[in-house]
Amino acid sequence: MASKKEFGERNMNLSFKLLDEKQYLDWVVTTAFYSSIHFVEDFILPKKINGLECKNISDVKSAYNLNGRHSARLKLVYDSLGISIGAKYQWLDDNSRNSRYTTYKISSAQASKAKQYLEEIYNICYKTT
């Protein structure tokens, strides 16, 4: 079975390829967001939250007593990685939902921002300096 990092990198490579080809910019944003999900979960979990050892997002949802996985993951990112990365993760989430459910017409500037934010999240999770 592939690791979360491997799944995330596969999505990230597709996101970057689509951006380079200037095609399907809505999917650039969406695959960037899905990549970030894999990266943050891989980096943060397992983690103890409110006395509960959380190994997956369902555990996190229970520990935070929240209804949805996305809201639990967003809180987890803000709590664990701080406001700057949390805001970038939230931007990817919001813009991914917009591109999937509202309009697929995404500007190249938005797609480039998705790439930048994904790279920052990846670097926080995997790069050591």
Describe this structure in words.
With 129 residues, the chain is mostly helical. The chain contains 5 helices and 2 strands, in the order ααββααα. The protein has a two-stranded antiparallel ribbon with strand order 1-2.
List low-pLDDT spans: none
Number of helices: 5
Please trace the helix and strand order, writing H or E for each element: HHEEHHH
Class of secondary structure makeup: mainly alpha
Overall number of structural domains: 1
What portion of residues belong to β-strands? Answer: under 5%
Radius of gyration: 15 Å
Quaternary state of the chains: single chain
How far apart are the termini? Answer: 29 Å
The total of beta strands comes to 2
CATH topology: Four Helix Bundle (Hemerythrin (Met), subunit A)
* Shape annotation: globular
Q: What is the CATH class name? A: Mainly Alpha
CATH architecture: Up-down Bundle
**Average of pLDDT:** 95
Q: Helical amount among residues, as a percent range?
A: over 70%
Largest sheet: 2 strands, antiparallel
Looking across the biggest beta sheet, what order are the strands in? 1-2
